[in-house]
Design brief:
- The structure is a single chain.
- This protein is an alpha/beta fold and about 325 residues long.
- It has one domain (about 5-215, about 290-330): TIM Barrel (Alpha-Beta Barrel).
- About 50% of the residues lie in helices and about 15% in strands.
- The chain is built from 14 helices and 12 strands.
- It has helices spanning about 15-30, 45-55, 70-85, 100-105, 115-130, 165-175, 185-200, 225-240, 245-250, 255-265, 270-275, 280-285, 290-300, 320-330; strands at about 5, 35, 60, 65, 90-95, 135, 140-145, 160, 175-180, 210-220, 285-290, 310-315.
- Strands 1, 2, 3, 4, 5, 8, 9, 10, 11 and 12 form a 10-stranded parallel sheet that branches.
- α7 (about 185-200) links the parallel β9 (about 175-180) and β10.
- α1 runs parallel beside α14 (about 320-330) and α6 crosses α7 (about 185-200).
- The chain is globular.
Length: about 325
């Protein structure tokens, strides 16, 4: 059975209270976990700590902490602390993010992203074990220390985020779960083959790797408003975030659209970028439109073999009431 989770909005809200209120609404309406992707807004650890304090049952976690801006040992410490604070409700997502954020925001070289992700997973697990950490990798060498506090009573699952074949293979081989995003149904099925290959390489059962698929959702009685929000969101990521998302769409048969969007955006023609995104692409990537249409679309993603969780995520430009309306329209308990 596929369960629904939610990605708290990546675009800045006016206050932390606004973010927490969405997590509380998600808890009330039956979502299983509130994820918070960390980009260049509020840091995930502080916001998730606040969510943990103000909720009772919903799981929490960063769908992605990048593997450049914190040391792997600090990520392990953070995971242990949030697991304690939340009473065992924490799950960790790791991934390289992309060059635009790592180089442009954190000032780090985007080198060896897959190797770093693997080493982070291995080191974080050592930290969380409570044993002395001794690790000699290609990127990191450290040792001689262990957690000063007791390790978590409930083990912390460590997931990996990824879009390309090799990153998904890595998740299947080393992580407890895979976070997928900007994938069409056919794209998910293609990447499932990479996940299974990774699991085989790691001598693991692929069914033991939890697959969480994030899809962009915008629900409104005014279906066109919802679709405009989704177009704006997609155009920004394809046009403004380097080649990362453009390449992902190209792998899934939308190369011409991706190139047109990126070219128009780069030339400052935002409207042309939006116009290049057809209804077929919107429907292939998300659940967007009237409540009835969006519910049908999200159920199509949930029916994909191997998908364990669908994460409702939101377009960047949605207002607080639109976020709440989308959450309620797609709520498991509705």
């Amino acid at each position: 059975m596929t369960h629904r989770t939610v990605h708290l909005p990546v675009a800045a809200r006016p206050s932390i209270d606004d973010v927490v209120s969405l997590a509380r609404l998600a808890e009330e309406t039956g979502y299983r976990r509130a994820w918070l992707p960390e980009t260049w807004g509020r840091d995930a650890a502080t916001v998730l700590a606040t969510v943990a304090e103000r909720t009772d049952d919903i799981g929490i976690g960063p769908s992605i902490l990048n593997v450049y801006s914190r040391s792997p040992a600090l990520v392990g410490q953070t995971a242990a602390t949030l697991q304690e604070l939340s009473g065992g409700r924490f799950r960790l997502g790791l991934g390289p993010s992309g060059p635009a954020v790592i180089e442009g925001w954190h000032g780090q070289s985007f080198d060896e992203p897959l190797r770093r992700t693997r080493e982070y997973i291995e080191i974080v697990r050592q930290v969380l074990s409570g044993e002395t950490v001794n690790y000699a990798g290609d990127v990191f060498t450290l040792g001689g220390f262990r957690l000063r506090c007791d390790p978590p009573e409930t083990p912390v699952a460590v997931d990996a985020a990824g879009m390309g074949p090799k990153s998904v293979e890595l998740a299947g081989r080393f992580a407890d779960g895979w976070h997928a995003l900007m994938l069409t149904p056919d794209g998910v099925r293609d990447r499932m083959e990479d996940l299974r290959r990774g699991a085989d390489l790691g001598d693991r059962d692929p069914d033991d790797v939890r697959v969480t698929l994030s899809i962009t959702c915008a629900v409104s009685e005014d279906g066109e408003r919802a679709r405009t929000l989704a177009r704006q969101h997609l155009a920004f990521y394809v046009g403004a975030m380097g080649t990362f998302y453009r390449n992902a769409l190209a792998r899934q048969g939308y190369e011409e659209t991706a190139e047109t969007v990126a070219s128009a955006w780069g030339n400052g023609d935002r409207q042309a970028a939006l116009d290049a995104i057809g209804d077929d692409l919107l429907d292939d990537l998300g659940a967007v439109g009237t409540p009835e249409r969006a519910r049908e679309q999200i159920e199509r993603f949930e029916a994909i073999d191997g998908v364990d969780r669908v994460a409702v995520s939101f377009p960047r430009g949605a207002e607080q009431d639109e976020l709440a309306a989308t959450l309620e329209a797609l709520a498991p308990n509705r």
